[in-house]
């Protein structure tokens, strides 16, 4: 009877130990996955900002600021970075501004 109890307790300890190891492995795997997500977070945030800027479009004041920067001699890429807008939008605005500029 006592040996049966000890055998049962030993089995329970072994089962708990195996379960603990499994949980530990899962914790390590999740930690690695979380670290990878943290590394990609800045890029994802920047993409979200660019999508939001493209969705909203230019407001009149942002367009005026962009034109002022372009007229001051700043490149379209630098102006885009300064204003937090997509580069292709500022390049297009610069091209249209040059095309409409009086001679």
Can you describe this structure?
Helices cover 86% and strands 0% of the residues. With 103 residues, it is mostly helical. The chain has 2 domains: 1-56; 57-103. Helix 2 (60-71) packs across helix 4 (87-100). It starts with a helix and ends with a helix. The relative contact order is 0.07.
Q: Radius of gyration over alpha carbons?
A: 30 Å
Overall pLDDT confidence? 81
Order of helices and strands: HHHH
Query: Using DSSP, what is the number of strands?
Result: 0
Structural class by SSE content: mainly alpha
Count up the helices.
4
What share of residues are in beta strands?
under 5%
Overall spatial form = rod-shaped
Low-confidence stretches: none
Domains (count)? 2
Characterize the largest beta sheet: strand count, sense, and whether it forms a barrel: none
Helix content: over 70%
Distance between the termini: 106 Å
SSE topology:
Blueprint lengths: L1 H55 L3 H12 L4 H8 L3 H14 L3
Helix pairs in contact: 2-3, 2-4, 3-4
Describe the structure in brief.
Helix content is 86%, strand content 0%. The protein is mainly alpha-helical.
Descriptive key words:
103 residues, single chain, 2 domains, mainly alpha
């Amino acid at each position: 009877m006592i040996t049966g109890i000890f055998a049962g307790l030993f089995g329970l300890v072994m089962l708990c130990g195996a379960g603990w190891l499994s949980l530990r492995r899962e914790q390590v795997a999740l930690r690695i996955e979380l670290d990878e997500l943290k590394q990609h977070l800045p890029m994802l945030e920047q993409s979200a900002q660019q999508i939001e800027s493209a969705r909203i479009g230019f407001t009149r004041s942002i367009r005026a600021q962009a034109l002022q920067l372009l007229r001051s001699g700043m490149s379209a890429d630098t102006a885009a970075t300064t204003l937090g807008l997509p580069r292709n939008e500022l390049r297009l605005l610069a091209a249209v501004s040059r095309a409409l500029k009086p001679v």
